[in-house]
């Protein structure tokens, strides 16, 4: 579903009713790319031309198989995705490796050339050539928009402010750690709480935030993670229930497109049956 409300006290705007259908479709498609980072597509036979997934399938699998909170994001520059990220706090044992950090790291470490001569150097102890230049500089983030499934936390909101992100689109609100309206408003006046009746002036480092994009789908992803059979949820679900939750996520994502979704049949598990050899009956002796 699409957000319909306007900007409130938190400074988080939502899609305007007067926004053209084409413009709304662009934002929704990029948000689907972010959701695709953390979904289990092999369970369903979903048309890839609708979800535009390509190589994000393996990263989405990894996000759930390693007990990572299913948060995915993409950075868009002039209509092109230049960075993708998912949570990696468990894989790296580093609490700062949120999806936004991972995506920015990917952007700033992308080499300008993929030539083997530029990428490798036998004399370098790290095996990386000193001549290897990066494709992007931090300045490019000032021209980027971020699409993320969950509202950035306070830490990530501050990081985005320091890099000068242009605008943030998120799905579900983060009522515990949100830094763009959920708890603090880091995107406005660096989170300073206004006095009663005070109107905060816009700072040059402030950035725009629009929330509620594909909110229900983002929430379903979180629910699926917290109830999946991994021992960390408050209860475990059966494989059938887990599959149903995954199906609901995709149906919500594709309901607006009117596309036909074919569900891959679940192979039936057959119990191993050991065939015992039947000993031949002894012929009755004739008296």
Automatic annotation (TrEMBL):
Assigned keywords, A-Z: Hydrolase
Q: Which SUPFAM superfamilies match?
A: Cytidine deaminase-like
Q: Which GO terms describe its molecular function?
A: tRNA-specific adenosine-34 deaminase activity
Q: Where are the transmembrane segments?
A: none
One GO cellular component term noted in the UniProt record for this chain:
cytoplasm
Which residues are the signal sequence here? none
Q: Name one GO biological process term.
A: tRNA wobble adenosine to inosine editing
**Database matches in CDD domains:** nucleoside_deaminase (cd01285)
Q: Which Pfam families match?
A: dCMP_cyt_deam_1
Keyword Aminoacyl-tRNA synthetase in the entry? The reply is: no
* Superkingdom, natural source: Eukaryota
Query: What InterPro entries does this protein map onto?
Result: CMP_dCMP_dom (IPR002125), Cytidine_deaminase-like (IPR016193)
Record's protein name: CMP/dCMP-type deaminase domain-containing protein
